[in-house]
């Protein structure tokens, strides 16, 4: 089987002349000699991006999904190839309904007729990993039943092994292969596809996302019926909504398109920064719009197999990077990359700053409403890669999600200014992060574990000072507004610093047995915090 599959891949490779994807000038002499006989083959009359897309489609659903992953990596591939890969559709013929029913019965240890009052034999949708059927529970609820394809795990593992061999070959023998990081990309894909093979994990992700947006006007997530959910079978509440790409239906019901687009952006930032748990597969096929309240539209999200989260440090550095970048403070962007560990500690900051400026300045010559937020982030990561930035899997997922959200928002409302929506959110989140109430709340929540963060106090003080400095220009105005703004800025400055001192003092005083060993500096911290917080 592996040998036969290898011949199939080679045949498709030659048929679409994928060797031509690599520029001639980058091929060493030995490789040119090996590929020379291929000139005798007929030349496909299509562009390189279309050739790659058709080759992946011919190789089957696992390669289609791999191509979909590649389409989210414009930091690695040229724009014309990414554009063609965006057209890949994960649609395959369904497997027989009798076989589907047998799989359900095996997983639930009960017949389909015992579990469901009715079960539609014709699937609602069929994809490479699973297919979905409509059903009604014996208790009357309308549901959808997602069932993994038979033996799909074995097929995926086989194709993953072959992709790994190809990736190692590209990295070793193709010029510029290491820069493309093919082995790394295949590993990313392995984690993604293996996550889709466990429907219990998908159900848990959906339950968490539903809890985060419980009673929210922004997003609705279908309920999971846990008693009927197993690793290979998932039963969900059936939702009725309009596909987000069906603009005709959305306009027919007089949907507020501007608000719909802005709410999509708000959902993204709420997931990333407030909940730190984001749906990382928000392509249009997984997003619907409720038919209720078209003037106050609500999204519906399905397929939560792929989710992401950031460390608290990555959240902080990402927010500050975005704020600094849009203020054109490239020095700060460079320093933040070093502080976060995204680039090596010995990276020359001046050189890195100059590289970031060269990439970003042409972009920012445009009006903010015309700037692609996601493309700016991609450009930033591309620049950092030249300075040996290690790939951060969580940032790749975030980048992919932001591309989906921004593309969707611009499709719904072309005038969408993503930065106008995102900027106030990021500013508010940064202010809240160093508010005294937040810090004291952290102490109460984590108790003695917060001791681990004690060595970070100098950095927190520095961050508070930096944030106050960054916010100061926003408080400047004329006349009375200037005076009041300066007073308010001073109060915020002192309150933040006082909050940091208060956190340190509260940490030391929170356990009575520590009082005996409390140094005079601990008392000084607490007293200084009170003075600063009560300063008029």
From TrEMBL:
Record pathway: Cofactor biosynthesis; ubiquinone biosynthesis [regulation]
Catalytic residues (positions): 281
Record EC number: 2.7.-.-
SUPFAM superfamilies tied to this protein: Protein kinase-like (PK-like)
Enzyme class at the top of the EC tree: transferase
Signal peptide feature range: none
Domain annotation ABC1 atypical kinase-like: ranges: 88-336
Pfam family, one: ABC1
Keywords: ATP-binding, Cell inner membrane, Cell membrane, Kinase, Membrane, Nucleotide-binding, Transferase, Transmembrane, Transmembrane helix, Ubiquinone, Ubiquinone biosynthesis
Entries under InterPro entries matching the protein: ABC1_dom, Kinase-like_dom_sf, UbiB, UbiB_bact, UbiB_kinase
Binding site residues for ATP: 124-132, 146
Function: Is probably a protein kinase regulator of UbiI activity which is involved in aerobic coenzyme Q (ubiquinone) biosynthesis.
Cited NCBIfam families: PRK04750.1 (NF003404), UbiB (TIGR01982)
UniProt xrefs under PANTHER family: CHAPERONE-ACTIVITY OF BC1 COMPLEX CABC1 -RELATED (PTHR10566), PROTEIN ACTIVITY OF BC1 COMPLEX KINASE 7, CHLOROPLASTIC (PTHR10566:SF113)
HAMAP family xref list: UbiB
The family this protein is said to belong to: Belongs to the protein kinase superfamily. ADCK protein kinase family. Belongs to the ABC1 family. UbiB subfamily.
Protein name: Probable protein kinase UbiB
Organism listed in the record: Microbulbifer epialgicus
Organismal lineage: Bacteria, Pseudomonadati, Pseudomonadota, Gammaproteobacteria, Cellvibrionales
